[in-house]
Amino acid sequence: MISNNQDLKAYNTFGISVSASHFASFSTIEELKYAIQQFPNEELLILGGGSNVLFTKDFKGLVLRNEIKGFEISDRTVDSVIVKAGAGEVWHEFVLNCIDEGLAGLENLSLIPGSVGASPMQNIGAYGVEIKDVFHSLEAYHLSSGEIHTFDAKSCEFGYRESVFKRKLKGQYVILSVSFKLSSNPNLNTSYGAIESELKNMGIEHPTIKDISNAVIAIRSSKLPNPKEIGNAGSFFKNPVVDETVVAEILKTYPDAPNYPAEPGKRKLAAGWLIEQAGWKGKTVENHGVHKLQALVLVNYGGATGQQIWDLSSAIIASIEAKFGVTLEREVNIL
Ligand code: FAD
Ligand code: EPU
């Protein structure tokens, strides 16, 4: 069913109230095609869980919420399988299903909000793993030709919070399903420091994939706001990747500034740390602000507009530029 002038507040985790001219859900490719045919000249937005978008104005076009389901295991060998999931599956439920099947590879990505179909968009990552590490392929509907195309990892051009779908092919495809190559002989990744210490707190010496998932859930729950309680879209900015010389300069004044390896000649800085140093952590402006436990997360305490969040993000960018000479880039998709 297609609705008109639909309030999108319930469809984005920032809880921003804007209106979409037209709105429908689809759970099959036929329903997708039918909805598009009704409004051939309108701008189109595919939404999953709405957990990585900021609406700054009403959407003058057709919003389609992806609800394609499916979970299929194939190509089982001694130590690997291919798991294909419908793009409208809830990511965290999908991860838990894989863990229940004894399939390793996604446990570090537990509790990331959103849908399976959005996971390749920005190559979601957390706690030392990105989906590119276990990605096999995806199927996507090409809007202009009506064909279904298959993409392997190389053609997705994954990078840090990046893919070809956010860049060159932006707005050209609807992702229908994603396949992952998972392992039945787990090669656990506990290299991210907080996981080790959380497992120790839990008294676990020989972790299973379920233990890793539980540790990640505990860490995430302790510092990231639950969007059901406080509107947010996770990290609002990317961690900036800058020249080593820029990091060396910052370390002269702040010897403890967190920084991590990146491509040759560059290092990644922690945006949350930069924002905290500039005095923004926990700052509230009317009904929105910077989260008190994670400065990388901007929050809507209720009733904020997307424009207010955008203005706050612009003020933060200007302040970090002035203090550190580093330009932050927004991670969230701005609409
Ligand atoms: P949406 O917000 O609905 O869409 C995001 C973008 O993808 C939009 O441009 C949309 O048009 C497009 N899109 C969505 N589905 C499709 C499709 N099927 N075909 C084509 N285009 C599509 N991200 C991380 O990487 N790591 C984290 O640790 C992390 N933690 C988070 C914590 C919190 C509390 C929150 C709120 C967010 C977090 N995120 C994190 C961001 C977010 O969860 C991910 O980006 C997630 O993949 C978004 O999924 P979604 O279905 O909600 O996407
Ligand atoms: N830090 C601060 N102050 C803060 C926040 C962080 O000093 O307010 C410092 C921490 O002490 C640590 C460093 O910054 O030294 C990194 O912090 P953390 O481990 O919390 O990770 P992050 O860089 O803030 C990134 C991702 C998250 C992902 C976590 C865990 C980005 C933009 N964000 O956050 O992804 O869950 O690592 O892997 O890369 C998202 O993309 O939405 C997201 C939540």
List keywords for this structure.
335 residues, alpha+beta, Uridine Diphospho-n-acetylenolpyruvylglucosamine Reductase, domain 2, Uridine Diphospho-n-acetylenolpyruvylglucosamine Reductase, domain 3, Uridine Diphospho-n-acetylenolpyruvylglucosamine Reductase, domain 1, 3 domains, five-stranded antiparallel β-sheet, globular, binds flavin-adenine dinucleotide
Description:
This protein has 335 residues and is an alpha+beta fold. It has three domains: 3-66, 2-Layer Sandwich (Uridine Diphospho-n-acetylenolpyruvylglucosamine Reductase, domain 2); 71-183, Uridine Diphospho-n-acetylenolpyruvylglucosamine Reductase, domain 3 (2-Layer Sandwich), CATH 3.30.465; 231-334, UDP-N-acetylenolpyruvoylglucosamine reductase, C-terminal domain (Uridine Diphospho-n-acetylenolpyruvylglucosamine Reductase, domain 1, Alpha-Beta Complex), CATH 3.90.78.10. It is 25% helix and 28% strand. It contains eight helices and 20 strands. It has helices spanning 29-38, 91-100, 153-156, 193-201, 209-223, 244-253, 271-277, 306-324, and strands at residues 3-7, 19-26, 43-47, 53-54, 59-66, 71-74, 80-86, 125-126, 129-130, 135-142, 148-152, 173-183, 231-235, 241-243, 259-261, 266-269, 284-285, 288-290, 297-300, 333-334. The strands form six sheets. It has a five-stranded antiparallel β-sheet. A four-stranded mixed β-sheet has the order 1-2-5-3, covered by helices on one side. Residues 126-127, 234-235, 238-239, 258, 270, 272-273, 276, 281, 294-296, 331 line the site of uridine-diphosphate-2(N-acetylglucosaminyl) butyric acid.
